[in-house]
Structure formats: structure tokens, C-alpha cells
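User: Can you model how DLZ sits in this protein?
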Amino acid sequence: MASNLKNLSDFGSAEIPNGIDMKIGIVVAQWNKEITDALLKGAHDTLVKHNVKEENIVTVSVPGTFELTLGAQSLLEYTDVDAVIVLGCVIQGDTRHFDFICNGVTQGITELNIKYNQPVIFGVLTTNNLAQAQERCGGSLGNKGDEAAATALQMVALHNQLRDNYLSNYEESAI
Ligand code: DLZ
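Assistant: Here's the modeled complex, given as C-alpha cells:
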């Protein structure tokens, strides 16, 4: 479904796992700060709503969306977070900068998921203009920060479940 038809905050709360035992990192870009602050609020509020403790939410800022990859890698490397959410907003301009930043961060975040075998959730708006970004950070189309936080909780729960099943099967077969 095209994202212009979907409210990004429109997910059933009952389907979201309990975050009581989870620790979540958030990396937020400072470019387009009005937008990314709103994404951060959405992500933070959704985590807390699903019982992630305030002290288990680790938030760091980076200058721009291009730096989100290294920020996420630093959290994975130096902290014990279960997942990282990256939040940014890239708005199309007159040059090809948009494409380079979007390609760089998409590839970087994809690689981190695989390299660390931990969820790194892509909460980056890539829009044609400011109005489209405003619609998606708490406006008429919801908040991509909410969606990213819900996705992080789902991916941590799935990851833990698969790991625990694998470990219990491995222990049974080792007896
Ligand atoms: C340079 C730049 C431009 C033109 N546009 C954006 C943008 O729309 N959103 C964003 O998050 N960052 C932008 N940046 C900054 C780059 O992400 C990065 O911080 C710089 O290129 C330095 O590496």
C-alpha cells in the first residue's frame, strides 16, 4: 500500500508485544529538527505506552540522516539495547543530495541488521516537500515514529522467540 493511503499510527495496540523487559535505542537526526522532534516524541510515547521503562530508552542525536548508520552501530556496539530505531527526515531539494543520503542510509541500516543480527528499524521520512513530512510526523497520516516503535517491539519479541526456540531445541538434541 502506498504510504499516502495509510495512517502510519494505525496499528492494533493488542498486536504489539509488551516491552516491559526490553531496552530500546533511538538515534535521531537533527536536520529538519521540527519534524524529527515530532518523530522522536511519537516513538518515545509508543514505547512507554507499551511498558518500556524510561530508563531503558537510550536516545542519541546525530547531525543528519546520513549519520544515522554510525549512530546506530555505536549503540549496538557499546550498549546492551535489544533494538535500535533510527529517525530522520530527508526532503527532496534541487540537487541529487536527496538520492545519495537516502541510498546511503538505507543500505547502511540494512547492513547493520545483518551484521549485528539485531533489529534496526528504519524510521526515516523521505518526502518531496515539508508538507508531506508534516503529514507523517503527527499530522493527517499519523506518525512514522509510532510505527517505528511498534515495529521495534514486534521485531524484538520475534527475535527473542526464535532464539529461545532454537536454544531449547538445541538443548534437547544435545541431551
Ligand atoms: C546535506 C543534507 C541535505 C542537503 N539535506 C538533508 C536532509 O534533507 N535531511 C537530513 O537529515 N540531512 C540532510 N543533509 C545532511 C546529511 O544527512 C549529512 O548530515 C551531511 O551530508 C554530513 O555528512
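A couple of observations from the model: The beta strands are 24-29, 57-62, 83-91, 120-127, 137-139, 142-143. DSSP finds five helices and six strands in the chain.
User: Helpful, thanks.
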